[in-house]
């Protein structure tokens, strides 16, 4: 396959995949595969998240993050290793770093009956009483992004010469996380560590990440030649990228590309930024062993076999959420 250096991430129309035109569907699969092989990122339009859902969720999270820190901390559960509820300022750092990122965030997982949660060993969601609409709108957004992600994974399966529904049962009731993030204003830039950034360079842990339009610039992706390029998406687009689990499963055929959120210019450090990624995870028992077709004499197997649950546990320790 030709190696391509993109100046911006490719933009694709998901309707080409699901609208019934076989030729358009095949082109979507090929274009998605080429983008994920080369840069690991695409912008997707005609997904299942409505503008109204996005606006309602942004409104709710802005209300929550505006609460005093001691109120927000009521929803922090350190014993859950950050898997549900509030995670305070500077608690997470990129793998290989010790300086915490300049952000606080909230984790929403599967909203399922108690019997299902117990079966999957998932904790229940934690909803802030101060923002009563937070729970419903978060759940609606979670389901819309999960549906979109399922379609993207079907296209990936076809690109990998797998059955189209290969991932369906692996992500149904998967350990996916919706993460509203607040990159809080810094009133005095001299008071934070010199190397502190909004989100240091990192790869995502999961299969794919779906990101709805962030409220300010700053997201950048590291191209293969070492150049950082800005990620921009139109308001009606989602940015969807490959995570480390999918890179591992495909033995690097699909790339989990390093990305970061840089600080704004010093005079704008006192402005907030909000962002809402959806980290699509499979069920914990899914094997991440390299697919047979992705291991060849030219591309020998890169990693030992591991399950998604074991890999997540390992990475949560590396980024400081699990002790």
Record field, number of beta strands: 13
Contiguous low-pLDDT stretches (5 residues minimum) are none
Radius of gyration: 19 Å
Biggest sheet layout: 9 strands, mixed
Structure description:
Strands 1, 2, 3, 4, 5, 6, 8, 11 and 13 form a nine-stranded mixed β-sheet that branches. The chain has a four-stranded antiparallel β-sheet with strand order 7-12-9-10, with no helix packed on it. 29% of the residues lie in helices and 16% in strands. The longest helix has 26 residues, at 134-159. The protein is globular. It has nine helices and 13 strands. The chain starts with 10 loop residues before the first strand and ends in a 5-residue tail after the last helix. The protein has helices at 15-18, 22-38, 51-65, 69-72, 114-120, 134-159, 168-171, 244-249, 308-318; strands at 11-13, 41-45, 85-87, 104-107, 177-178, 181-183, 199-202, 208-212, 219-222, 228-230, 238-242, 259-261, 273-280. α3 (51-65) packs across α6 (134-159). β9 (219-222) and β10 form a beta hairpin. With 323 residues, the protein is α+β, with helices and mostly antiparallel strands.
């Amino acid at each position: 396959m030709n190696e391509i250096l993109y100046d911006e991430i490719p933009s694709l129309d998901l309707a080409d995949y699901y609208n019934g035109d076989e030729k358009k569907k095949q082109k979507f699969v090929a274009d998605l595969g080429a983008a994920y092989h080369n840069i690991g990122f695409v912008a997707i339009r005609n997904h299942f998240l409505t503008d109204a859902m996005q606006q309602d969720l942004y409104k709710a999270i802005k209300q929550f993050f505006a609460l005093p820190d001691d109120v927000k901390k009521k929803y922090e559960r350190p014993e859950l290793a950050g898997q549900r509820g509030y995670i305070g300022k500077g608690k997470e750092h990129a793998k290989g770093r010790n300086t915490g990122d300049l952000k606080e965030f909230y984790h929403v997982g599967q909203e399922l009956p108690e019997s299902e949660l117990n079966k999957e060993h998932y904790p229940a969601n934690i909803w802030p009483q101060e923002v009563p609409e937070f729970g419903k709108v978060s759940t609606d957004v979670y389901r819309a992004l999960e549906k979109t992600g399922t379609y993207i994974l079907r296209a990936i399966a076809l690109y990998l010469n797998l059955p189209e529904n290969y991932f369906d049962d692996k992500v149904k009731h998967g350990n996916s996380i919706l993460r509203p993030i607040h990159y809080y204003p810094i009133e005095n830039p001299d008071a934070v560590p010199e190397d502190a950034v909004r989100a240091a360079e990192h790869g995502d842990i999961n299969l794919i990440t779906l990101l709805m339009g962030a409220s300010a610039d700053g997201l950048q992706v590291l191209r293969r030649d070492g150049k950082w390029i800005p990620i921009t998406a139109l308001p009606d687009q989602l940015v969807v990228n490959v995570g480390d689990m999918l890179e591992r499963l495909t033995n690097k055929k699909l790339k989990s590309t390093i990305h970061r959120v840089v600080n704004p210019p010093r005079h704008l450090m006192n402005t907030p930024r909000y962002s809402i990624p959806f980290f699509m995870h499979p069920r914990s028992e899914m094997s991440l062993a390299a697919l047979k077709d992705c291991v060849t004499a030219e591309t020998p197997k890169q990693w030992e076999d591991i399950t998604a649950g074991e890999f997540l546990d390992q990475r949560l320790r590396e980024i400081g959420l699990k002790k």
